[in-house]
């Protein structure tokens, strides 16, 4: 009798853990266990199985606190297992610095490793960056975590930042380059950018921060497009809030239109440089194409052709405006070319793109392997299907 009761209690505890895991995976509030799941179970037991539900339900603790404890216990177990495994194996790590709605900086670390001949990717930790988001601060957060968990730094075999490894240039990732764009602005364009940021701060101070995204990174990625789309409405809004800011914004409308169009193009490239199917060959093609477009934009805008700048084309652009934008595009081109020199100058052998082509021009060392590959009919079909699907 005692053994039977003990077994039922263990089963209830096991069910509590399993349901808590489902709640955690769904992202639903922890209170859903007590408010919805238990009443649903009770209804199923009474209506379908015709069994008294109260005795069974009492053995499945799903209160808010119980679910929280179960999730914490499972998280701790998973983290301990993961860290113990990483202590004895090599792995790659991806670091992603993100900004929360309250402007707090969060560092996320993901690890990829091989276990039982399968590749796994797991979240290692999420830590708040208390001081700043400099490289040194990020390194110390990572180092302190590794020391705490006794994971040797020497087990790291590769590191990627700001997304896929191919997004990383000589110094920083492409997203970081977006932040850098503001630093190569002329004094005039920097002042125009600053006016937009001032408006964001005005919204935040007056509890209108939901009107526009207001962190600096988000202004560079999304905020400008939304800001310019609401430009006339914003001027009306400022008429009662800050008339001086309104007048300054009206004077810089062409600059804001230019920056909106330019950052939109950066966003398009940023999206292209994401995804699991990205590789160095595709990355070089994307970056080379963008660099060529920047050069073309500079030439076209220099002769008064604004078709590549739809917002700017609808403004009254003067000769001194054109000169400012040409100089800025020239600076963007030069800095972009220097920053991604390692990828842009990378030589890609033809056999990598088409291993079934002419092998006579390839390196003698790999000719034998390519010859064997070229006669493999099964791989030919797979290669053809992969090429047709864009893989």
From TrEMBL:
Organism: Acanthoscelides obtectus (Bean weevil)
Protein name per UniProt: SCAN domain-containing protein 3
Domain of life: Eukaryota
Native organism taxonomy: Eukaryota, Metazoa, Ecdysozoa, Arthropoda, Hexapoda
